[in-house]
Structures are given as structure tokens and as C-alpha cells.
Amino acid sequence: MPTSLRHSAVHPHAADFLATTPRLSPALVRALSPFDMLVVPGLFGSDEDHWQSIWEDVFRGHGLSIKRIEQENWSHPTLSEWQAKLEQTLEASRRPVLLIAHSLGAILSVHHGLKHPASPVAGALLVAPADGEQSGSPDAARLASFLPLPDKRLPFPSTVIFSQNDPWLTPTRAHQLAGKWGASLLDAGYTGHIGNNSGVDYWPLGLNALHSLALTCHAGQMPAHA
Asked: Are 126 and 101 in contact (CB under 8 A)?
């Protein structure tokens, strides 16, 4: 998981990055434009090199709506406090929301979906969900309040993306959890925990998965905020 917080709202080399990175396809921009997108980081937050942070900059550069959950304590999370922050942020949304979640943020998103089936969440990209039940990570104890892991079908479309060498989630467990949550499943290859040190940059594979998820949400009945 990430080891440092993101200190800037803008990627430090955003201008150079956007100048050298292929622009999002018009089809992807059209697919995402009806949504408010919400970045949901995991334990310790996501720094400026994390694909979540890079996506924020790129999406804003294309005029897309994207926000980030800000937690009071990234190092010692409690489910109730993290849920409260997620719910407060969602209350401000007036359009369907796509959750872009990583690690413990993915687990938080699943907990939220099962607790609030009528929330404005239209879909969730669940990247490298942190398996606090079976991971041998020394930080696993920090996730105690998020256990047991949810085991019911989510009320909205979702995609689980896993890595073959993620210390927090084995491929077998990724298949099991995706099956329980009713999520589609995507193999990201050997990319570790797909976090700050993964080297995926703006991560085209993840963007393609988000595009497919958005189209799935369009095809279904997207919830409206009350």
C-alpha cells in the first residue's frame, strides 16, 4: 500500500505530463461526462505518482468532474470514520457517481454499497482490494475494523482489477471476492499492489476498464441522487 500522502492537488509535472501523454479518447470522455467521479484511496493515501492522482489531473484537464475522499487519519483507519467521510462526500453529488477505489478504499466502497444500496453510486472500479483476512502484510492489523470482508452482491456494477504478484491479494482470492460481489474481473499482470510504486503511470489498462464500466452503467438504470 502507499507509504506517503499526496501533498499537492496537482501533479508536480502536470504540464509536461499532459503535453506528452496521449489525450483521452473522445469516446472515453463522452462515457465519463455524465458522472461525478470519486477517488477513494487506501491505507496511507495516494501520493502524486499514484495512478489515482495522475487520473485526477488528466480528467480535470478534459473538463471531467472528479473529487477525492479526504480522511482525517490515513494511518489508523476505522470503518465508521471512513464511511462517514465517504457518505458526506456523496451527499454533495447531484449526478450518478463512479467510485475509483484502490486497496482499502475498494473495501470501503464495497461496505458502503451494501450498507447504502440507494446511494448515488452508479458503479465502482475496485483496484487491488486489500484482503485483511488472508494477507500476511505487517500492516494487516490496521484493517481490523473493516473485517469481516463483505460477501454479498453489490447493488451496482463493479470491476475488480487484480495483480498476479500483489502481496495484499492473491489471484485466487480476487476470483472469490469478485464472485461474491457480482463484479467483473480483470488481470493486470505483474504490477504488485498497483499503487505508488507500480510504475503504471496513467495506466491505460485501468482507463479501458473504467470506460467499460461507464458503458455498463449507461446501459443499466443509473441511480439519481434524491
From this structure: yes
- The verdict on pTM exceeding 0.70 is yes
Residue whose grid cell is 482470492 = 173
Please report, as a single letter, which amino acid is at residue 103. Answer: S
Q: Which residues of 181-195 are buried (b: 16+ CB within 10 A; e: fewer)?
A: bebbbbebeebbbbb
Count of residues for the chain?
226
The string of pLDDT tens digits covering residues 187-206 is 999 999 998 888 898 999 99
| 47-83 confidence digits (pLDDT tens) | 999 999 999 999 999 999 999 999 999 999 999 999 9
Q: Does domain 14-219 have CATH number 3.40.50.2000?
A: no
Q: Distances from the Cα of 147 to the Cαs of 180, 192, 193, in angstroms?
A: 15, 23, 20
- Count of CA atoms in the C-beta half-sphere (13 A) of 16: 3
